[in-house]
Amino acid sequence: MTFNEELAGRVRKRLAGKKGLTEKKMFGGLAFMLNGNMCCGVHGGELIVRLDPARTDNALVEPHTRIFDLSGRPMRGWILVNPAGLVDEPALAKWLSLGTKYAGALPKK
Questions:
Q1: What confidence score (pLDDT) does residue 21 get?
Q2: I want to staple 34 with a disulfide (CB 3.0 to 4.6 A). Which of 39, 64, 91, 105 is the partner?
Q3: Each residue of 63-103: pLDDT tens digit?
Q4: Is the per-residue pLDDT at 1 higher than 80?
Q5: Which domain holds residue 23?
Q6: Is residue 90 within 8 Å of 8, Cβ to Cβ?
Q7: How many domains is the chain built from?
Q8: Which residues are 34's β-sheet partners?
Q9: Bridge-partner residues for 49, per DSSP?
Q10: How would you classify residue 77: left for phi > 0, otherwise alpha for psi between -120 and 50, otherwise beta?
């Protein structure tokens, strides 16, 4: 699967200058790693967000979200936000903030 280059560019721009940020192709998409821990990514046209597993249910009540499930095994702490939930920069910033906050609190790899 290819990933949406425009969305990847928006993520890059928003996270530019963040210390410890790298990119890696995975899940058939593009992952953004913070100190070796994935914080977010782009899968197709959707944004992958990694967050505290205890916050998964709260995130899933937000419009345009669903659980991240590529293999038939839903993953708590991982959600997908579809393009309708990313139409403006404040919406994208909100999700990226959740992802970077959680990954930034994890031990460095």
A1: 97
A2: 39
A3: 999 999 878 888 899 999 999 999 999 999 999 999 999 99
A4: no
A5: 5-105
A6: no
A7: 1
A8: 21, 37
A9: 40, 79
A10: left
